[in-house]
Amino acid sequence: MATFIHPRLVNDVFGDPGVYAELMFERRALLLDLGDLAPLSASALLKVSHVFISHAHADHFSGFDRLLRLCLGRDKTVALFGPPGLADRVGHKLAGYSWNLVHNYEAELVFAVTEIHPGAQTTAARYRSSTGFQREPAPQGAAEAGIVWDEPALRVRAVALDHQIPSMAYAIEEKAHVNIWKNRLAERGWPVGPWLAELKRATLAGLPDDTPFRIWWREQGEPRETQVPLGTLKAEVLNIVPGRKIAYVVDAVFHEANAQRIAGLAAGADILFIESPFLDADAAIAARKHHLTARQAGLLARRAGAKELVTFHYSPRYLGRADELRREARIAFAQGAVPDHPMRQVS
Ligand SMILES: [Zn+2]
């Protein structure tokens, strides 16, 4: 089975942070952060259905205007997720324009905003073009286990990091693919039928292997059925391909509480995108600006057990020295060096 999620950096490593995650087979994409979007074509941006924003510093949020401009006049809903205060900020952005003619448009553009609050609470608001983007309340929700978005093929988890303000980190988790060996079904005399969809659902739901599973079909108009343990079916007729996990960590200070949250969110990630703005020689500056160093990013990737590390969001002070940042992160990732700078404790 081909990989479903194809993530890539929006800008080069010195540009605004952002990851564009294309969902193959769906002509759809998820976007992590809304900074400079210039490298993304209009057709790439129009595929974006969900945007996950870390925080509202300009290099993470100023691209909202380009997204708005492109989507205007189209029937489209864009879901935006982010830290507390995001709904107001989106409202303020929208209020910066005149909307006296927009109610004449046939198409409806909707921004559905979800704020992620401490304690797994979410609040929501909606802005529709037909009302001139007046704020409308939307139901509150819960982000159990940090899950802020869940759909059949994937889920997105969020955790708030300390960047003096909350900075959300995200993990996109592709769910397992379940493929059916049709030839093995035939060998066992089990006809193809709606029970296979139930079998996929039961498997993805993680039901225990000894769960009795009913296979049913009709033979010459007569109902037939047999029961087989779920584990037997999984072993004999299913090919289960685990989904990939993509983690995205930007602006955050290096301390133990952040490290724990990052390690939990990014645990076992296939790819961890993580900011590395400063060299460790400038760790004091990084700490003052509430950012990581490349070495700290590497250590965090190692602690999370990430399989692949992608560093970005380099400070322009190192222009022409990207290799140094990359190398420092790689060495810490590979060797797990003991930090020279003890982690700050947070109260
Ligand atoms: Zn920031």
Fold and architecture overview:
- By secondary structure, the chain is of the alpha/beta class.
- The protein has 3 domains: 1-158, no CATH class; 177-241, no CATH class; 252-347, no CATH class.
- Helix content is 27%, strand content 33%.
- It is built from 11 helices and 18 strands.
- Following the backbone from N to C, one meets helices and strands in this order, namely EEEHEHHEHEEEEEEEHHEEHEEHEHHEH
Number of helices: 11
Structural class by secondary-structure content:
alpha/beta
Q: Which stretches are poorly predicted, pLDDT < 50 over at least 5 residues?
A: 341-347
Report strand order across the widest sheet.
1-2-3-4-5-6-7-8
Mean pLDDT rating = 92
Bound molecules: zinc ion
Q: Count the beta strands.
A: 18
Keyword list:
alpha/beta; 3 domains; eight-stranded mixed sheet; six-stranded mixed sheet; disordered C terminus; binds zinc ion
Structure at a glance:
With 347 residues, the protein is an alpha/beta fold.
What is the strand and helix layout of this fold?
Elements: E1 5-9, E2 19-23, E3 28-32, H1 42-46, E4 48-52, H2 58-61, H3 64-71, E5 76-82, H4 86-94, E6 109-117, E7 121-128, E8 135-142, E9 147-151, E10 154-163, E11 165-174, E12 177-180, H5 182-188, H6 195-204, E13 212-219, E14 222-229, H7 230-237, E15 238-241, E16 245-249, H8 256-265, E17 271-275, H9 283-288, H10 294-304, E18 309-312, H11 322-335
Parallel strand pairs: 3-4, 4-5, 5-6, 16-17, 17-18
Antiparallel strand pairs: 1-2, 2-3, 6-7, 7-8, 9-10, 10-11, 11-16, 12-15, 13-14
Zinc ion binds near residues 55, 57, 163 and 251.
